[in-house]
Design goal:
By secondary structure, the chain is mainly alpha-helical. Helix content is about 55%, strand content about 5%. It is built from seven helices and two strands; from the N terminus they run αααααββαα. A two-stranded antiparallel ribbon has the order 1-2. α3 packs parallel to α5. The chain is globular. The N and C termini lie far apart (about 50 Å).
């Protein structure tokens, strides 16, 4: 495993795995299912992906003096003044397949930043508070991977609520296949009810 000997390759491996997990959670969903809000605050699977692609484009772009080749495809900063949730949902003119394609292109753009710069390359995050804006590429790779992993966890729960599709990764679900889930849920509910 090459990642063991190369810290940058290891970081890149986990970043890519998290990207793949986010895309996997949209697999098999039609446009409505991908967009449908599933929480009281409007969280939806396609919106999570759109948020994550804008996060990556920002952290691996302007932070290191780079601009995504087609910035008009991203949510511009001024839009957040009118709609603070602008990157959390797909507009009517955006499609699931189109956003997945954009997310992959943003990933390639981010990977170019990672490939071209050393881990100790300095960057500056203008939207962070003063005194905390100076960063390194190493720090940003970890920061973005953690942010994406958190949203991949959200996607896990949203997808499970939709159609009971569960699992950590497509190729390694880490779910007990013969578990009697209704009985298990009843057992946990009974335990919780003892404290009512």
């Amino acid at each position: 495993m090459a990642e063991r000997d190369d810290p940058k390759a290891a970081l890149r491996h986990y970043l890519q795995a998290t990207r793949d997990d986010l895309v996997w959670k949209l697999e098999g969903l039609d446009e409505r299912e991908a967009r449908l809000p599933r929480t009281a605050t409007g969280n939806n699977l396609l919106g999570l992906l759109k948020h994550c692609l804008n996060v990556e484009a920002g952290y691996f772009g302007p932070t290191f003096g780079r601009e995504f080749p087609s910035p008009g495809e991203l949510v511009p900063e001024h839009v957040y003044d009118e709609d603070p949730q602008a990157d959390w949902y797909a507009r009517a003119d955006e499609t699931k397949d189109g956003l997945i394609d954009l997310y992959r292109r943003v990933g390639e753009f981010a990977d170019q930043t990672i490939a071209e710069l050393p881990l100790d390359a300095p960057g500056r995050v203008p939207w962070w508070r003063p005194g905390h804006q100076d960063v390194t590429l190493h720090q940003i790779i970890i920061h973005v991977t953690c942010d994406l992993a958190r949203h991949a966890g959200h996607a896990d729960i949203l997808r499970e609520q939709h159609d009971a599709t569960v699992g950590w990764r497509r190729e390694n679900r880490q779910v007990i296949d013969d578990q009697q889930w209704p009985a298990y849920v009843a057992k946990l509910t009974a335990l919780a009810d003892r404290f009512a």
